[in-house]
Amino acid sequence: FLMGMFSYVYYSALVREHHVTVGSVLQTVVSSLTVEEQVELFFDLKRYLEGVGVALA
What we know:
The chain is built from three helices and no strands. It has helices spanning 2-15, 22-31, 35-51.
């Protein structure tokens, strides 16, 4: 039992791949920002995307 438990903890903490998506990272970042900081982030991203040639509607 103990060996199985150790193996599970070792695998889940150190070996298993964690599937992180862009959406989950952004959600984590944005949820810790104030509304003003979220607006500032939005305009900074908009300015960046326009600068690299992405057409925004």
